[in-house]
Amino acid sequence: MLSNDNRVGLGNILADLRGYLDDNPPALTLPPGAYTSPELWQLERERIFNRSWVLIAHVDQLAETGDYVAVSIAGERVMVVRGGDGELRAISPICRHRLMPLVETGAGHTDALTCRYHRWRYGLDGRLRGAPHMAGNKEFDPRDCRLPQFAVNTWKGLVWVNLDAAAEPIGAHLDLADGEFANYRLDDLVQIDSWMLQWRANWKLVSENGHENYHVLGLHQQTLEPFVPGAGDLDVRQYSPWALRIRVPFTFPADAKSLQLTEVQKANLSVLWTFPHSALAAAGERVAWFSFIPLSIDRVQVLGGVLTTPEVAADSAATAQTGQFMMAMINDEDRLGLEAVQLGTGSRFAQRGHLSPKERPGMLAFYRNLAEALVGDQGGGG
């Protein structure tokens, strides 16, 4: 009988996490306190989110000079913008004067970044271009004023940012999976839909949900169960601490007239996860990307988009079908389920749950990467 002790102390939570690094890890979920502990949240900010690659956009959203996408990663605001020189830059959109955010989170277009507090203005490269009535301050040199920059990478048309400006490129890890995803022509795909939502759940609950298909039996009985049944066995391959591939069998082979897929690719949903919370899911001619960016202990910003081949995108009926299928993977069924689970983690009777064989391969892979990031020798995700 498992104890119903929530084990909210950080030391107890980390002790449980270390168990996932064993050769024979416990087939148990995280302790409930892992989803509510302020101390663990602060440790995650330091050891995971300050040094992890986060998927935030597709290049179609950043095609023109001044196009931008802005997000908040565990409280740190970041925007990626296309500069006049054609380069993508990840910069801090916080005014260097009085800390006013220069843009709201979301996607948009701008010619310059102007603070609405005191009208300080910055170029798309982050350099200060104007500061009203500052000439009288002889200690202030506008040439020294520039918005901080972060690391930005593009891989197969997907745009990633890292709060660590010196981070190793994410492509070094994702390229390890290139052989399994090359037939999907990711470089050629176009985006036909996108979303930015907010869920009231801890980021780990959301990532767990994406590392197993068992929940389809309950949450997606009418939408996904007929196509990717929850009783299917997962095939999991770990490429590196950052990159993990999960295959989920289809009920029937996927349509792929505009792609030359193998029989295995036609027969399975192939998901490429990037620790801690980003993924792309390939289903025949349909590919969706997802990013579950933590805002706080119990808030997640959900970003994503639907990609398809130019041939399918030119067919309005096929495009509608593609969007409908992919949106079923990110609809309110998951949100309502995960928000309910988040409430359950606060119960005084909450305890660690036994993992089903249907969820064990993916969940334990995620837990191992989490443990490696928080208590492993490197103290980081990669």
Folded structure, characterized:
Keywords: 2Fe-2S, Dioxygenase, Iron, Iron-sulfur, Metal-binding, Oxidoreductase. This is Aromatic ring-hydroxylating dioxygenase subunit alpha. With 382 residues, this protein is an alpha+beta fold. The protein folds into 2 domains: 53-162, Rieske [2Fe-2S] iron-sulphur domain (Rieske Iron-sulfur Protein), CATH 2.102.10.10; 173-375, Alpha-Beta Complex (Naphthalene 1,2-dioxygenase Alpha Subunit, Chain A, domain 1), CATH 3.90.380.10. Helix content is 24%, strand content 27%. It is built from 11 helices and 17 strands. A 7-stranded antiparallel β-sheet has the order 1-10-9-4-3-2-5, with no helix packed on it. The two termini are 36 Å apart.
Query: Quick one: how many beta strands?
Result: 17
Q: For the terminal residues, how far apart are their CA atoms?
A: 36 Å
What is the approximate shape?
globular
CATH topology title of the largest domain: Naphthalene 1,2-dioxygenase Alpha Subunit, Chain A, domain 1
For the sheet with most strands, the description reads: 7 strands, antiparallel
Q: Which structural category do the helix and sheet elements fall into?
A: alpha+beta
Radius of gyration: 22 Å
CATH class of the largest domain: Alpha Beta
Helical residues, percent: 10-25%
Number of domains: 2
By DSSP (H or I, 4+ residues per run), the number of helices equals 11
Residue-averaged pLDDT: 93
Widest β-sheet, arrangement of strands: 1-10-9-4-3-2-5
Low-pLDDT residue spans: 1-7, 378-382
* H and E string: HHEEEEEEEEEEHHEHHEEHEEEEHHHH
- Label the CATH architecture of the largest domain: Alpha-Beta Complex
CATH homologous superfamily label of the largest domain: Naphthalene 1,2-dioxygenase Alpha Subunit, Chain A, domain 1
